[in-house]
Amino acid sequence: MTTTTNRRRRICLFGTSANPPTGKGGHVGIVQYLASVLLPVPMIEETNDICLCSSSSRQQEEQHSSCPRFHEIRVLPVYKHMFDEKREHQASYDDRLAMCQLAFQDIPNVVVSDDERRCFDWVAQKQGLTTMEEKMKLRVGTVDLLDMLLKQDDSLEITLALGADTFMDLTRWKWKRSKDIIRMIKGRMIVFQRIFHGDEVEKVKGSNILHNTSSTANVSKVRNNAALISDDEILERINDVANLLKDTCPNLKDHVMVVKLPNLSSVSSSKLRRCNSKEDLSLLREELDQRVLEYIKTNKLYGFST
């Protein structure tokens, strides 16, 4: 059933493996930023938005400048990853959903959603898939999720939150129906580019990844490493996509935000998964919400499984 309303509901989708969700130096820091982004005054006037404020015109003007850009930030743990090699290393979907609920519960306007699981079931039903064997072969992507959400509620104005590497993959058309995704969101994207400090950059430059690029796999690692995606590359890609899709997304360049958060660390979920429960406990305490860490320990996930 489709919900129709005259008022647009602005939501930001943040899809993540959340395996596990990292703290303020990672996933939590990104979602905190998304919850803090404000709506520009011209956009408020254009969308006729109503803020919670006093009836005083002066106070209302001040509140206008502090309206959140998004009515909702929707965190979406990945249900079935499009790339097979990543599935084997994931905690269960229910565990990752629970960890996200713990990690993001204190941030306003954030909803941790099982939309990806619902989308998988929705697509399977549309295709008439009934057996487990048939469903195991099913590949569901972001375009299917957008299709489901917009069919169920056509008042949604959707923005995607992406890392620099995933943005480059999307705009190099590596995703399922990549161009359709950008058209469906009208080019609205927030791209997070990690800030690498001098010692971190040197570690990347001195790594085997850069010195051993003879195979396709190693070249792919080089190109997908966020440290190697420059400002110029991102801006050039935005311009190229804007020119390519100018007829269907005429204001694309105005709808893409590139954000650098100084508090983001270089520690990845994959590194935390490999942590030994005793030797690396201090790192886990530093990089994870304590409620998430307790959940991992209680449920014997990752390094606590033995």
Describe this structure in words.
- The protein is an alpha/beta fold.
- It is built from 18 helices and six strands.
- It has helices at residues 27-36, 41-47, 57-64, 84-87, 93-104, 115-126, 132-136, 142-152, 164-171, 178-184, 198-205, 208-211, 216-224, 231-244, 252-255, 269-273, 281-287, 290-298, and strands at 9-16, 72-77, 110-112, 156-163, 189-192, 256-259.
- It has a six-stranded parallel sheet, with helices on both faces.
- α5 runs antiparallel to α18 (290-298) and α8 (142-152) runs parallel beside α10 (178-184).
- The radius of gyration is 20 Å and the shape is globular.
- The model is unreliable at 43-65 and 202-226 (pLDDT under 50).
Brief summary:
This protein is an alpha/beta fold and 306 residues long. It has helices at 27-36, 41-47, 57-64, 84-87, 93-104, 115-126, 132-136, 142-152, 164-171, 178-184, 198-205, 208-211, 216-224, 231-244, 252-255, 269-273, 281-287, 290-298, and strands spanning 9-16, 72-77, 110-112, 156-163, 189-192, 256-259. Helices cover 47% and strands 11% of the residues.
